[in-house]
Design brief:
Number of strands: 0
Structural class: mainly alpha
Shape: elongated
Radius of gyration: 23 Å
Order of helices and strands: HHH
Length: 78
């Protein structure tokens, strides 16, 4: 079996998605698919951020306090 040169550059996940959507779609369907994928990755990111938030014991108050801290480097005027 000879491999397609593109398949050597794509991950198994990318190849699976290409095979699933190997049929023609109109612009609206493509936009809908993009929305579904964005929502999927948004949920994954939110879960990861929630885990970090919980592990570090962060709260809204801590975040607000950190945002108010001055962390810029003081430079001397000439």
């Amino acid at each position: 079996m000879q491999l397609n040169p593109i398949s050597n550059k794509l991950t198994p996940s990318q190849l699976a998605i290409l095979q699933l959507f190997s049929f023609s779609m109109n612009e609206g369907e493509v936009d809908e698919l993009k929305t579904v994928l964005v929502e999927f990755y948004d949920k994954r990111l939110q879960r990861a951020l929630d885990l970090i938030w919980d592990e570090r014991g962060l709260t809204d108050e801590i975040l607000k306090e950190e945002g108010l801290k001055h962390r810029r480097t003081a430079y001397k005027s000439f």
